[in-house]
Amino acid sequence: MDKERKNDSKEREEGYKQTSKEREEGCKQSSKVREEDVIGTSKETPKAFPKQGKCRTNSGRKQDEMDRQNLTLLTDLYELTMMQGYYRNAHRNATVVFDAFSKQSVWRRLFHYGRVEQLIEYIRELHFGAEDIRYLSSLGIFGKDFLDYLHDFHFTGDIYAVPEGSVIFPREPLVKVVAPIMEAQLVETAILNIINHQSLIATKAARVCYAAKGDGVLEFGLRRAQGPDAGTYGARAAIIGGCVATSNVLCGELFDVPVAGTHAHSWVMSFPDEYTAFKAYADIYPDACILLVDTYDTLESGVPNAIRVFQEMKKNGVKSKHFRDSSGFRGSGLPVQEGKEDVG
């Protein structure tokens, strides 16, 4: 039995070396991700959601630094244990088709978003470095033959996806992976991670913009996002979903999208009273004046003081009249909605 196992192991190793060389040659000759078929290539905007934002797809070195990371181990452990299982069985080179889709959507429509460049760079940088191999070896669950295979791993499959900003329906594929089963299994987790969160944000943004009925919606999610990547890529997804600007300055620089903002409660609290704070801000930014009215009392103080400042601005020929309420309070006496110009 031991001799048979050794012989079988040698045959597998020789077969792997030959297959690895063939795949490596294939990698040099064929495109791993067909850019004409992936997300972000369509210039059409869905008619279902007006005022879709447009984002620059590449903005140079800083964007490259964010994208070009070796995220090979950004995967669930069971993807790797299944890979080893496939490797040690005859069907390890079988070509499969993996579809990423939404099982259901409360809104019955999902607004798809997933950055083509982020997906492409993930695939291009897909490799197991020496430190990755050492770490996987330390887990004690992967054999040397499999780790040797990972050392020369390359993705040789094809990836297709619907255009960025498309409206999709439950069980309609967003991304399709056609590849040997081991390769398709490895990239599953990362692709879902890239696609799911940003599609969620774009869908929510589209719903909010639809409810706004033509009024501009600003994205302010950075401080509540789950980390820098989620805050930055999520902001871009919100622009794709219809928001007219974001508060995220890095997103503005990277993707050439409009940035906008107001002021915080700390600004109001740093002045003797609310009116003085509003007046000072309006004097500095007369053409982009959005006043935060809920620092103390929204209806009794914030709104009246904002209206007083806006009326003074109107006498001076300035038309900027907006205020923001971040408290979530909507009393019956609140005279206008956020974003309305005529508050006088």
Q: Could you describe the 3D structure shown?
A:
The chain has 344 residues and is mainly α. 46% of the residues lie in helices and 9% in strands. It has 12 helices and 9 strands. The chain has helices spanning 2-29, 61-67, 77-87, 116-124, 130-138, 144-151, 181-212, 228-240, 249-255, 265-269, 274-284, 298-315, and strands at residues 95-100, 110-111, 158-161, 167-168, 175-180, 218-219, 245-246, 290-292, 322-324. The strands form 4 sheets. The protein has a 3-stranded antiparallel sheet with strand order 1-5-3, with helices on one face. A two-stranded antiparallel ribbon has the order 2-4. A two-stranded parallel ribbon has the order 6-7. It is elongated. The N and C termini lie far apart (90 Å).
Strand order of the largest sheet: 1-5-3
| Beta-strand fraction estimate | 5-15%
Q: What separation lies between the terminal Cα atoms?
A: 90 Å
Give the number of DSSP strands.
Answer: 9
Instruction: Quote the average pLDDT.
Output: 78
Structural class estimated from helices and strands: mainly alpha
Q: What is the global morphology?
A: elongated
Radius of gyration: 27 Å
Number of helical regions: 12
Please estimate the helix content: 40-55%
Low-confidence stretches: 1-6, 15-52, 331-344
Q: SSE order, as H and E? A: HHHEEHHHEEEHEHEHHHEHE
